[in-house]
Amino acid sequence: MSILKKLIIAAGVLVAIIIIGVAGYMLIEGWNFIDALFMTIISITTTGFSEVHPLDTAGRLFTIFLIIGGSSAAVYALTAIAQYVLEGHLGSALWRRNMKNHIGSLKGHFILCGYGRVGQEIAGILSSEKADFVVIDKNPGAIAQAERDGRMYVAADAATDTALKDAGIERAKGIIVALGNDSDSTYVILSARQLNHDIFIEARVSAPEAESKLKLAGADRTISPYTIGARRMAMLALQPEVTDFIDIISLKGQDMHLENLTVGEGSPLAGKGVSFARTSGKAVVLAVNKKNGQLITNPSETEIIQAGDAVIAMGSRTDLRAMEGICENCKLEK
Questions:
Q1: Where in the chain are the domains?
Q2: What is the pTM of this model?
Q3: What is the pLDDT of residue 174?
């Protein structure tokens, strides 16, 4: 029997004894409700106060049984409470309440749907990048693992509006759908897109034929772990040095990152050449993603950056923050 069930039973027994005690004194002794309640409480708690009114033989026998029953129920309840506290349930309950309040205050965070093997790897990377995120999963085992890992979570079906709202979908920056079932992923994407039209949606795809359906449902990007894994293995065999370089700029613990800087209307970069961006900081400008979708790799020094274009840069966090700092109204995206 669970500790919570024991607590419920103990509370129910105490309430039942109090009701029986009050009713017994009112029927046996003819007392009013307040006197009967007072006598019941002091009998159960064995506080030692004198009787409210003199008791006859029947009243004394009833009091004896009331003291025995009430004391036993009180000991049972105290034991259950002590066990509940010692096993950490109270601390866990307080942690969950604080977690719910923290989720309610988040803004610009990510929502991770699914905490299986893929989801746990994603969570580890997000955590290492100091990104706020909330896990949604309906599997009790996955939720237990998320709690052990110290993740903020919502224990519910990610396809429901309630679960997404509890995770702050209206205030979130992006949602990562890492479910193993393409049908479930489709429902999550549809619900997320309906609740937040502007949110960035990335979805795991298992079957190749499901990719177009997920994009039709509203996914901005679809990722196949199997395709990525196969491509990485092939590249490692063909070009191990290149693969090692990519690892250096992406693996946890390395202070080298690739980021996407979208140039706003008021940015000093707007209307300037790539040379201005390259001399404005230490970050290396690798490409310019034009707002019309054209990707210009290794752009020339004279290539003009327009408002709405994205500058893809590589550097340390400090270098990238410095480049962002010179760009008023410049929005950073990952």
A1: 3-86, 107-223, 255-333
A2: 0.59
A3: 95
